[in-house]
Amino acid sequence: QFDGVASWYGPDFHDKKTSNGETYNMYDMTAAHKTLPMNTVVKVDNLENGRSIIVRINDRGPFVRGRIIDLSNKAAHEIDMYRKGTAQVKITVLGYNGEKGQFTLYDSENL
Q1: Could you give the CA distance from residue 17 to residue 24 in angstroms, rounded to a whole number?
Q2: In angstroms, how far is the first alpha carbon of the chain from the final one?
Q3: pLDDT in tens, 30-59
Q4: For strand 67-72 and strand 2-9, is the pairing parallel, antiparallel, or unpaired?
Q5: Residues 71-110: pLDDT tens digits?
């Protein structure tokens, strides 16, 4: 588990290649992390409002000091941190070797 600040990224990177070679889709439930293996599946809990999501790591980042994960635009919307831009989160590794399109939308009621 990791605690820290999450941020999000979207339009400027949409349709560009991610670090694992996929094309970034800001409407997928994905995220960037500096060190976790590609395709790691993580649960992200927004500690500020109790909302949770599951995302797959498919990129590297964030490259801003003090941040531990960059969420896709959709993921940021789903845990209600889009407008603020950042949130205090807890990240829990759920598994490895997740596949593209394997995960849909989850919230705290489903986890």
Answers
A1: 6
A2: 16
A3: 999 999 999 999 999 999 999 999 999 999
A4: parallel
A5: 999 999 999 999 999 999 999 999 998 766 655 444 344 4
- The two tokens of residue 84 are 């603020």
**Dist CA 28 CA 14 (whole Å):** 10
Q: Are 10 and 72 in contact (CB under 8 A)?
A: yes
Distance CA 86, CA 18 (A): 21
Locate 12 and state its tokens.
């400027």
Q: Alpha-carbon distance 54 to 44, whole Å?
A: 6
Identify the DSSP state of 51: -
Q: Is the pLDDT reported for residue 4 higher than 50?
A: yes
Token pair listed for 99? 């596949």
